[in-house]
Amino acid sequence: MSALRPVGLVADRIAWEERLLIGAAPAFGLRIDWVNDEALSLGHPDAPAIKGYDTLLVRSRSYTRGGLIATLAEAAGVPTLNTARAIHACENKAALRALLQTAGVPVPDHRLVLSRKDFEKALADLPLPLVLKPVFGGMGKRVTLIRHADTAHSVYDYVEDLAHAFEQASLVEPYLGGSSVRCLVVGRELIGAAEFESGGSDWRNNAALGNKNRAIAHDPDVAKIVDGVVDVLGPGIYGVDLFATPDGYVVNEVNHAPGFRAVASATGTDIPSAIGRYVQELLA
Asked: Which residues does the UniProt record annotate as the domain ATP-grasp (predicted)?
């Protein structure tokens, strides 16, 4: 029997998705080891913490850590999945939307907010209700729905007073409703899609919040947008989040280290095997 190909799974912890990826790996000739992203000390050309791996599967949950690790790993000669370029793009919502928009991929109307003056201009430009969200962040954290003009500036006080300068960079966009579609992409293939609906007292429909979900059938409009995203970022493993609008779907964000428990549950898709097969093909 040939030896298993070593793959480093870079993450801050082993959660449900990581356990399944590690368990599925041997069937595809792989051995996946957890590599703690808090103990790499990258920068040395030999990068001893990662040099023994044929590739790194970067699943850092930090909104800055993954791109930095991938950049230094690639510089040390160790390929990463996703690529450093793709991860950096996904970590920055404003930069990602600019890339997609330039390529003709639809994104929500939005304004970059770096100051109180920017915020005031966004309020004047866009109709209420509005969503205020950080440029760097995920899992629905620090995303705020602004329903009334008379409370908007009080909301922005928290951004101005409690966030560090790096975290104050925000987007303001129209509220597009209480549902979204999460598309799981492996390579270039859309392998599963589910609709998430907000429930209870929480208006957010983020999959990480455990809201209601259901599988959706193949939709050529969804597939076309997903293809456009992959054309921009390159093949990889992505969670592409879409909102439905009267003019069609728009890309809200793309997650470079997607949680896939909810999509797997809704669709029955064996996502760990799809990822294992993709990594096997890349290393062939």
From this structure: 97-280
With b meaning 16 or more CB within 10 Å and e meaning fewer, what string describes 73-87? beebebebbbbbebb
The string of pLDDT tens digits covering residues 60-72 is: 988 889 999 999 9
Average pLDDT over the chain reads: 93
C-alpha distances out from residue 133 to 77, 116, 178, 214, Å: 36, 14, 16, 25
CA angle 222, 228, 233 (to 5 degrees): 125
Name the 3-class secondary structure at 223. helix
Alpha carbon of 246 to those of 69, 97, 224, 229, 250: distances in Å? 40, 20, 17, 21, 10
Note the pLDDT of residue 33.
98
